Amino acid sequence: MRTKRLLAGLLVLLSALAGTPSVAAADEARNCVADLSSGQTSCYATSNDAQRAANAAVLVLVAYEHINFNRDAEGVTTLFTSPTTCTSAYDNETNKRYASLYLNNKISSWATYDSCRVRFWDGPGFVPPMSALSYVNVDCADMRTCFGSTDWNDRSGSLALT
Prior knowledge:
By secondary structure, this protein is α+β, with helices and mostly antiparallel strands.
């Protein structure tokens, strides 16, 4: 019995030392990684765990539940990753479309990476209306004002990047 407890403790210690991110329980999951090629979302207790999980892919967008890129204890942050980089022309790449957001109707600010541009749709499955296409290297601190007079705060149900 004691040997089993020692082995179990050793396995926990080894996995912690290896830096393997662990998927968090739903009430702790505030830092998510969404893979645009598979549509899968995994959430983690810490932003460091989410960043380690996203490390092998190209980071193209970070979406925040609150305005001003706020990462408070209650807000959800999602890192969107892709296996490929963005292109300079808006060609609505199918591998960078996300039809059903984990942050459905919760995105209040976002930052693009890898020279990507983003467009949001009101409903899941690209249901219109849709936002204007963002500019390259221009982030949005407040979705109420990023697309002119149209308020997109807590409204997005799906998105595409190019």
